[in-house]
Amino acid sequence: MPLTVRGYVRAGGRFSGGTFASAMTAFSRARQTRAAAHERRGIEGRSERVRVEDPGRPHRALERWAVPMPTVDPQVIGRSAHADAALYGPDFSYGHYALVKRLPIALGGTAGLLSLVAAAQVSPLRKALLARVPQGEGPSDAQMAKGWFSVRVVGEGGGRRVVGEVRGGDPGYRETSRMLADATLCLAFDDLPACAGQVTTAQAMGPALRTRLQQSGITFSLLPT
């Protein structure tokens, strides 16, 4: 049975200079990243049952506009699906998007991201942009208190449609540090799946990490469809 899952991200808050520097560095290494991924697929083999969607153009979803996100999330989820056929099924695809209210914002966001990716390839431009948002700068406590994030996950297969949501506070600092701390505790103390090597979070920790995140205040819920 084919299963199609799409993640739609919304967030409010400010990013830090360190986050911006990490993103620009990742953008600047796109060619090396593709080469490493190609080499790895040559060793591990390509899965015919797992697909990562070509994000394409902005489109309507969940009463908003969905904008492609140039992040590693789809590849990480694809690797988890490749490793666990019993959980993800014999025919699985995933797409990852940001949600915005208006089409001009969607088009502007896409153009802005493409411009950053292009600028990251040119060393003088990359250095100039990094100088404008120095590392070590970030949002205040008051700004972080207002921060939030939401990921709507829409799964379709076998004639059914299920919508889930993961929701939490400030995504740039507070929830990132919470996730890191919970993952560390999970690895140290919980009964985890047997695995080794370079694996994804889902492979390494599975439901145990979700339980810890829920206890820390991040919510996982099913929504009406």
What does this structure look like?
With 225 residues, the chain is of the alpha+beta class. The protein has one domain. The protein has ten helices and eight strands. Strands 1, 2, 3, 4, 5, 6, 7 and 8 form an eight-stranded mixed β-sheet that branches. The mean pLDDT is 88.
Q: What's the SSE blueprint?
A:
Blueprint: E1 2-12, H1 17-28, H2 30-44, E2 50-52, E3 59-61, E4 64-68, H3 73-83, H4 85-88, E5 91-100, H5 103-120, H6 123-132, H7 141-146, E6 148-157, E7 160-169, H8 174-189, H9 201-204, H10 207-216, E8 219-223
Parallel strand pairs: 1-5, 2-5
Antiparallel strand pairs: 1-6, 3-4, 4-5, 6-7, 7-8
Helix pairs in contact: 1-5, 8-10
Helix coverage percent of residues? Answer: 40-55%
- Overall morphology: globular
Mean pLDDT: 88
How far is the first residue's CA from the last residue's CA? 21 Å
Sequence of secondary-structure elements? EHHEEEHHEHHHEEHHHE
- Pick out the low-confidence regions: none
What profile does the largest beta sheet have? 8 strands, mixed
How much beta, percentage-wise? 25-35%
| Number of beta-strand segments | 8
Q: How many domains is the backbone divided into?
A: 1
Structural class: alpha+beta
The radius of gyration over CA amounts to 18 Å
Total helical elements? 10
Q: Care to give the gist of this entry?
A:
With 225 residues, the protein is an alpha+beta fold. The protein has helices spanning 17-28, 30-44, 73-83, 85-88, 103-120, 123-132, 141-146, 174-189, 201-204, 207-216, and strands at 2-12, 50-52, 59-61, 64-68, 91-100, 148-157, 160-169, 219-223. Helix 1 (17-28) packs across helix 5 and helix 8 (174-189) crosses helix 10.
